[in-house]
Amino acid sequence: MIYRELSLYNVDSIEDLKYYFFQGIELGIQGFIISPSLLDIVKDIAPEGIVLSCPIDYPYGQGHSKVRNHATIRAIRGGANAIDLPINKHLIEKGDISLLTNDILSNYEICRDRGVNLRIVLEYRHTDTKSMEHILNIIRDVGIEYVISRTELFVDNITDNILFCWDMALKYGLSPIVNGDISYENYGTIKNMDIFGVRLNNIAKVKSLGV
Questions:
Q1: Residues 6+ apart with CB under 8 A from 109
Q2: Ramachandran bin of 152, using left for φ above 0, alpha for ψ from -120 to 50, beta for the remaining angles
Q3: In terms of CB atoms within 10 Å, which end of the chain has fewer, N or C?
Q4: What's the mean pLDDT when you consider all of the chain?
Q5: Percent of the chain's residues with pLDDT above 90
Q6: pLDDT above 70 covers what percent of the chain?
Q7: Is residue 149 classed exposed, middle or buried when 0-12, 13-18 and 19+ CB atoms within 10 A define those classes?
Q8: Full-model pTM
Q9: Which residues contact 96 (CB under 8 A, 6 or more apart)?
Q10: Using an 8 Å Cβ cutoff, are 70 and 59 in contact?
Q11: Are the CB atoms for 158 and 190 separated by under 8 Å?
């Protein structure tokens, strides 16, 4: 069964957060993306087994590693059981793989030691092929399983997005989560390709897909 999560990162109010959270639960959503400042609203009402993922240094991923580490610790203390961490593009531009590796590894170890999943957020359309191969190898070698395909900063091509996720699963053994404007037909394709999961960005989309 495909994993399905709902982003509530940009909700307008606490009342909206609660309303869409409970609607998502009723519709079988298995995970939610929650702002660090709103984790306390849902952590004690979430059913057992529900993923509460908190984006860190999102969406740009430009923060210093120690700042990102601290934010990760704070989010976990706040109730997150998963952390969504964008790749730091400046470390890619510097061309020093050891800096990128250390940034990912330090956050991974913080999460691992606290029983929390670290999930890496990529930007597949704005990273060259060679750099992406390095990044995916690092993710796999560190021991990270889950990867989100994009930050939503840039215009998406959903077909390319799905193919990128499929490639990650086949070549690197990762569990990708397709983050995009997913149609009913796209959803069927993702299920048929046995891609791990999808991120949906509003409750209307959840209802339209019948998930």
A1: none
A2: left
A3: N
A4: 95
A5: 87
A6: 100
A7: buried
A8: 0.96
A9: none
A10: no
A11: no
152 φ, ψ (degrees, to nearest 5): 80, 10
Evaluate if residue 127 carries a pLDDT over 90. Answer: no
Q: Is the peptide bond before 59 cis (omega within 30 degrees of 0)?
A: yes
Stretch 90-111: mean pLDDT: 91
- Go through the domains of the chain in sequence order and give each one's CATH number: 3-209 (3.20.20.70)
C-alpha 177/C-alpha 161 separation (Å) is: 10
Provide Rg for the chain, Cα atoms: 16
210 vs 118: CA distance, rounded Å: 28
What mean pLDDT do residues 186-201 have? 97
